[in-house]
Structures are given as C-alpha cells and as structure tokens.
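Let's practice the habit of predicting before peeking. Look at the sequence and jot down your guess about where helices and strands might fall. Then scroll down.
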Amino acid sequence: MWLLSVLFLLSKINVSILQVNYNEECSSSIRNVGLPRIWKTDNDEFPIQNLDFSDAKFNITAVNGDKEDKLIIRSKTCQFLSCLKDDSPQLIQTIRESLLQQPSNESYNLATPVQEYKRNALLYKNSTRRVDEKIFKGRIKSKYNIQFQGVYPQTFSEKRFHMVFFIEAGAEDFESGSTSLYFELEHNWKGLLVEPYSLTYDLGVKKNRKAYSSNVCLSTKKHPSIILYNLSTKGLDDKHGIVPNQCIPLYSLLLACGNPTVNYFSLDIEGYEFQVLKTIPWDKVKIQKQG
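Done guessing? Here is the structure:
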C-alpha cells in the first residue's frame, strides 16, 4: 500500500511537470518572477497563474524619399505563454480570448467593391485563380452561411455544415495581394488570416473579412515565443528587429479555430516557411493544399 501511494504521488508530480514546457524562454520568464508559488497553479490543464499581456506602442519615423511619416506600432506579448505546450488548454483558451479576432458580421469595406470583384475575376491574385482552376476546378464551395456572433468554432464539426477552410499567413491588409479573398467571395469559404505587422493588420480588420484573424507571427518552435520584428524587411529578425512580436504555433491557432480541415494553406512569411512547417504535428491536422 505504501509503495502504491508513493507511485501515485510521483505520477501526479510528473503530470504536473509535463504541463509546463520548461524551454529556455520559459525558464528565463520564471527567473524574472521567482518562486513557483508566485507563478504556478495546481491545475494541470491551466498551470500558469497570470498570463498578463504587455501592451506597448513604438513611435517610429519612416523615411520615404524626402517625406517622413510618424508611425505608431503596437505590440502585444506575454512571456509566460512560452511555458505552455502547443496543445495546452490554457493556451487555446488564451488565444480565443486575447489573440483571435472573430469574423465580421458587418458589410465588406474593401477598397474595390465586392461587385467589381464579381464582375472582373482578373482583379484577384492570378495565382489564386489558377489554384482554383487547376486544383479545385471551382467545385469546392461552402454550402451554408454560418452566423459567427458569439459562436465558438466547435460549430465546424457539426454535420449540417459543409465548411471549407483556408489559412493565409502573411495576410498584410487582407485585400491587396490576398491569396484567400477569391475563395471567400466566390465560394463562401471561411478561414484564418494571420498578420504580425500591426499597421497593416489594423487596416485589414477594417475590411470586414468573414474570417478569423490574428495579429501574431507563426512560431518557429512548438511553443509560443517572442521574436523581434524588422520594420524594414517586414519579417522576423532577432538581430535587427526592434518590435517584440508574439508568435504562436500554427497548430495552436488551428485548435483555437476548432481544428478544421484546411483545404488551402497560403504561407508567405519572409523566409521562415520551412521552420514553421517543421512545428506542425502532421498526424493531428488535415491540410490538403499548400501554396
């Protein structure tokens, strides 16, 4: 009986330890805080006490020829997120509550009216139309309009909906150069738009796209991380970047969206594509077409 009690206690300790991802970034965050009683809980699924975000603003002067523009860049980060695994219930809940923008129920506010896109398919990005013509042949459509008001994406699994889903990482302002707008307007697809640069992301949100969106970068590790953003190259750059950017594993974002089957995945993140692909647990996701 004594031996069984000890083994049970050890198993509980091991489970608790496994819920915290003690990587280098997490350990650094812990050192800044101190004793476990300050930052850790006894809840295995929600092991971190306070996931407080740091909201910062950076005043930047952008020089374009003889013209100077004063820019304000937002940054929203949380160091302790790095202590959570990519499938952590606490991380998924935090993403839904703090980092995931719901699809808009408002009318589109695009620079080019929807009617113009409908009349002239050449206005869409050529590569996107070719994917539809060559791969999907215009046959994959969402059959139902889903009302998103207050509805979390568990709805995706309900059989009465035929959901078709895209991911566009590097979505910029959600319209110019978008590789997903065609599928949304022409075939009623739903999806996720990811853009780390706050200025273009804020412009994108105003377009009222019918897709989830997140102002984060995709993590190159299997846990959240904070990486500096280079305003010149508009990419991640820990050596020359100046704006801290919250990065989230793609798998975590998918889980926050209900882990739908991804029919089209557009990944354009300035050279970090392979590192991001390496973080995906391919046995746990369904991604049909990558562009």
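How did you do? The chain has ten helices and ten strands.
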